[in-house]
Amino acid sequence: MLNLTQHRATQEQILAGVVDMPEPVRARLSELLTFDEIPDADELNLRARAVAMLVMEGDELGDPCLQAMIGGAPFFMRYLEVALLDQSVEPVYAFTRREVEEITVGGGLQKTSVFRHVGFVRPYEAHFDVS
């Protein structure tokens, strides 16, 4: 499963089979996923298709990519899902659980949220052979 997000895969995601894009492909991916201005539908479509084409470069990592972990700007995800499906790549989303850790600091209580990878949400599962 190829990581098509702006963040490097966590240790839990790597153990679940997620692979980061090699450099400099990852740098190009980050450019495509970053929006500094409000995009129109044409730009969203072009960027999504460009990201989907990066999957072919990710194939250099080994077996052909059949799944891609995506995430980022909500307004872009539908375009990216369609572009990936057109390349026969199943888009999936990481599912994390927020765990609050509490520690005592100087007589007070400090709470920290830690996000733990739990699994993947597969919105198109019914369209793929998952055996």
Layout of SSEs?
Layout: E1 2-3, H1 11-15, E2 19-20, H2 25-33, H3 41-58, E3 67-70, H4 74-86, E4 90-105, E5 108-121
Parallel strand pairs: 1-2, 1-3, 3-4
Antiparallel strand pairs: 4-5
Helix pairs in contact: 2-3, 3-4
Could you explain the architecture of this structure?
The protein has one domain. It contains four helices and five strands, in the order E-H-E-H-H-E-H-E-E. It is of the alpha/beta class and 131 residues long.
Shape summary? globular
Tally of individual domains: 1
What is the terminal separation in angstroms? 16 Å
Approximately what portion of the residues adopt beta-strand conformation? 25-35%
Write a brief caption for the model.
The protein is an alpha/beta fold and 131 residues long. It is 34% helix and 29% strand.
Short key terms for the protein model shown above:
131 residues, alpha/beta, 29% strand
